[in-house]
Write a structure and sequence with these properties.
Elements lengths: L6 H10 L7 H12 L3 H17 L1 E2 L6 E2 L5 H4 L7 E5 L2 H10 L5 E4 L17 H9 L6 E4 L5 H14 L5 E4 L15 H9 L2 E2 L2 H4 L1
Parallel strand pairs: 3-4, 3-5, 5-6
Antiparallel strand pairs: 1-2, 6-7
């Protein structure tokens, strides 16, 4: 167990080390870096996190992180309301937006079905997606832009079955994204092409 000359230092290191992928050594480097900054810089950093925790909202339409009740994408008249791209989380929205190739809207599930992690359909925003489609005459296509992993394919198959009664075009991103890859790690060109060259959902390859 690490020992520190200051309990304040130790407390800060312990908090940083709670972040995903951050061990105690990395946490110590980050804390020492912050200590080298002037007080105003540290206070801005702290204030931004506090405001994020207290003021951030989730879009009532797509469940993306937003500063308002309706996010900028859902409220934009320049976005095509007939196409909804279903993604696992906010990181995937960022990844797809960075390609500049998609001009529809999104629906953020908040995860994917994973029995090993205790995540079932009820833990995701699947019911909200069904309600959204049922309440809109504009939606014509749903793109399942999920990670090409076993969990992603399981979620895609579940969504396909749930959305069948709505008589929509259901498509998936082209397999330019390698099997087993998560969207956030795909390069922008590959991901952009995968969106453009999306294909109809195929049950024979989904199981």
């Amino acid at each position: 167990m690490e020992t520190y000359s200051s309990k304040l230092l130790q407390s800060a290191v312990e908090e940083f080390s709670k972040l995903p992928g951050i061990g105690k050594k990395t946490a110590l480097r980050l804390v020492l870096h912050m200590l080298r900054q002037d007080t105003e810089t540290v206070e801005r950093f702290s204030d931004s996190l506090t405001r994020l925790s207290r003021e951030v909202k989730y879009c009532r339409e797509c469940h993306n992180i937003s500063d308002h009740g309706l996010c900028e994408i859902c409220s934009s008249p320049r976005r095509d309301p007939s196409i909804v791209c279903v993604v696992e989380d906010i990181r995937d929205v960022v990844a797809i937006e960075n390609t500049g190739q998609f001009h529809g809207r999104y629906h953020v599930l908040g995860g994917i079905i994973s029995p090993m992690e205790g995540i079932g359909p009820a833990d995701l925003t699947i019911d909200a997606l069904e309600e959204r489609i049922a309440g809109s005459s504009a939606i014509r296509e749903v793109i399942l832009a999920l990670s090409t992993t076993m969990e992603g394919d399981t979620t895609g198959f579940y969504l396909y079955k749930k959305l069948q009664p709505f008589n929509l075009k259901i498509s998936v991103i082209a397999r330019g994204v390698a099997i087993g890859d998560e969207l956030e790690y795909a390069d922008e060109i590959t991901l952009g092409r995968s969106i453009i060259h999306r294909t109809a959902y195929d049950l024979t390859t989904a199981k």
